[in-house]
Design a protein that fits this description.
Elements (H helix, E strand, L loop, with lengths): L5 H25 L3 H25 L3 H23 L7 H21 L2 H5 L9
Keywords: Membrane, Transmembrane, Transmembrane helix
Protein name: Integral membrane protein
Organism: Actinomadura luzonensis
């Protein structure tokens, strides 16, 4: 398996960004609630930020890698909570969109948490 996952990670985050923008377009057409607009906007902004972080991580910046690693583990948990909440205020179509986002971000978690990738970003003082 390739030890440099950053083009795949960037593509996954770009897919999240495109999907989030499409979600906002759907909300504009169907009349989304404030919850839909808030979540959709926040995910779009976060995805744009994560695309930028993926570029930094590809250039070897450990802080970018650590942030991506944290978000890729935490975000799917948040998505599961949204999907399981009985009255979260999210319409079914947005829950479906969030499920796809969760799968995309979980794929990032799989890529960036492999041993070979972790070893490429050693903690300070652990350089060989």
């Amino acid at each position: 398996m390739d030890n440099n996952p950053w083009s795949a990670v960037r593509a996954l985050f770009l897919a999240v960004l495109v999907l989030s923008i499409a979600t906002l377009a759907v909300a504009a057409v169907v009349g989304g609630t404030w919850v839909v607009w808030l979540r959709g906007g926040a995910v779009a902004v976060a995805a744009a930020w994560l695309v930028a972080l993926a570029g930094q991580a590809a250039r070897g910046r450990r802080p970018a890698y650590v942030r991506i690693r944290f978000v890729s583990l935490a975000a799917p948990v948040g998505v599961v909570i949204i999907l399981l909440a009985p009255d979260s205020g999210y319409p079914g179509w947005m829950k479906a969109e969030q499920a796809v986002v969760g799968v995309l971000v979980a794929a990032v978690a799989f890529l960036v948490n492999r041993r070979s990738v972790r070893e490429a970003f050693p903690k300070r003082g652990k350089l060989s």
